[in-house]
Design goal:
This protein has 1 helix and 10 strands; from the N terminus they run H-E-E-E-E-E-E-E-E-E-E. The protein is mainly beta and about 140 residues long.
Length: about 140
């Protein structure tokens, strides 16, 4: 009986845990491999030492990646491509406006704290495409999916 109880407890713990390894199933964006590091001590990334100061990093993801510090030791990273536009659209990268990103073609606006839609068309289905950010003890940020 004791083994059965332990087995049930173990199974419930395993199934209750969620993982951020699930893909961002979005047909409008390519599932590209992202894995790079940035050094927060470099001048071009200095604003990441302060909350609400996003930095655009080109040449990664679908249209570059925007990273922002959103708390004392917490960072978020999102693809700069509008997740609600087909990839063949001429509007590739969105633009930064404070703590938001917006698409100049459609007017879709997204929040950089949550990745959610702030305003736009009525049928917007997808939030910003999020990447995982891991902060190392040596001032390095690793961004990957």
């Amino acid at each position: 009986m004791k083994k059965l109880l332990i087995g049930i407890l173990f199974l419930s713990v395993i199934t209750a845990c969620s993982s951020d390894d699930t893909p961002n199933n979005n047909p409008n964006l390519l599932d590209v491999n992202v894995n790079f590091q940035i050094d927060l001590s470099l001048p071009q990334y200095n604003s990441l030492n302060f909350p609400s100061s996003p930095v655009y990093i080109p040449n990664y993801g679908n249209a570059g990646i925007v990273i922002m510090k959103n708390g004392a030791d917490s960072f978020v990273a999102f693809d700069a491509a509008d997740p609600n536009h087909p990839r063949k659209n001429e509007c590739v990268a969105m633009e930064l406006d404070g703590i938001q990103m917006f698409c100049s073609c459609e007017g879709n606006t997204y929040d950089l704290y949550t990745g959610g839609v702030v305003e736009g068309e009525d049928d917007l289905r997808y939030p910003l495409y999020r990447y995982r950010v891991v902060q190392g003890g040596n001032g390095l940020l690793s961004v990957r999916n």
